[in-house]
Amino acid sequence: MARLFRKGSMSTFCAAALAVVFAPVAAAQAAQCGNTAAGYPAWVQGFKQEAAAQGISSKALNALGGTQYATKTIYADRNQKSFKLSLDDFMRKRGAETIIKRGKGLKQQNAALFASIEKRYGVPAGPLIAIWGMETGFGAFMGNQNTLSAVATLAYDCRRSDYFTNQLYAALKLIDKGDLAPSAVGAAHGEIGQTQFLPANVLKYGVDGDGNGHIDMARSKADALASTANFLRGHGWQPGAGYQQGDANFVALQGWNDAGVYQKAIAIIGSKIDG
Questions:
Q1: Whole-model pTM?
Q2: In this predicted model, what pLDDT tens digit does every residue of 161-170 receive, in sequence order?
Q3: Where's the Transglycosylase SLT domain (predicted)?
């Protein structure tokens, strides 16, 4: 902006100033949100121009160009009902007893991994295993929707366009980094991997838990679990404090999911796994 105040005619200054003012407006108008599939292809083209101006690589832009309007994602977004259940019904629907039983075994089988995670982040195995089990059945089912198409569709959809536009930029950056394949599949809202991180959370909290140089939330349980612990630590987790409702660390579980039944379920399942 300082360059605008160099010597020159007033008309030159005004033209430059107007260009700065109206350039973002023009870019914003290039990608208008919509509520049907009809406008999606035009939106993608407009968004690609915006993303290119923000430094997103041609590799990621080409991947975005290959996306499709995700009808199943929109349906899922409009029909979220499980969080309206009572705690008992929610626990039953999520298979809490099975998660606890299997979780105790997984804690023993992966004792060294959980010990290293707790040493680094202060988060014990219980809540991590509870999240792992409730989100994907310990990696058994991580979703079947193309991640980039899901996130792009929600960025285009007018209901929460701003929020998912941020997620879309994050997904494109993950593709740039080689931490997300354009063909990657996940949950309906673009959640990734064994503990279902949205792309922006992978960028912010993702950890290379197995030390191979990449963050692979789908194929590496070490990456997924260490990233989850890092997320909880980033949301106020205090090493050594309790995590039941009313304890200091319950606030970190609230950061994981807005639904009260989900927060309480993590706390209950985790405590039974931790013993």
A1: 0.86
A2: 999 999 999 9
A3: 42-244
